[in-house]
Design a protein that fits this description.
Radius of gyration: 23 Å
Shape: elongated
Number of helices: 5
Oligomer: single chain
Largest sheet: none
Order of helices and strands: HHHHH
Number of strands: 0
Length: about 110
Amino acid sequence: MRSALRSLWPPPLVLAVVAGGRQFYVTVAGVDPTALPSPARVVEHGGLNRGDLWAQTLSTLQETLLGFALSIAAAWLVAVLLDFSAAARRGLYPLLVASQTIPPSPWRPC
């Protein structure tokens, strides 16, 4: 139990130090809150707009799950096609291998 607690405390501690440092900087430097909002302002407005945040969270979760399900279906279809068709294997397998040599960043939309 102790080792589990020892391994769990560093991330929250770092997060607290970073948030505290940002809060201190924004307060002392008088930074425009629209340019760099303080953590306290983010939490305050998150609480005020929790209904909108919840609606957007549900929408994002639905889209993520749909995309995940579609990707699993497409992967299953390609795997079955490659397994049962020698012609598909000869045509698709080299392209799949080549796609693994391209870093993921060019695949992301801008």
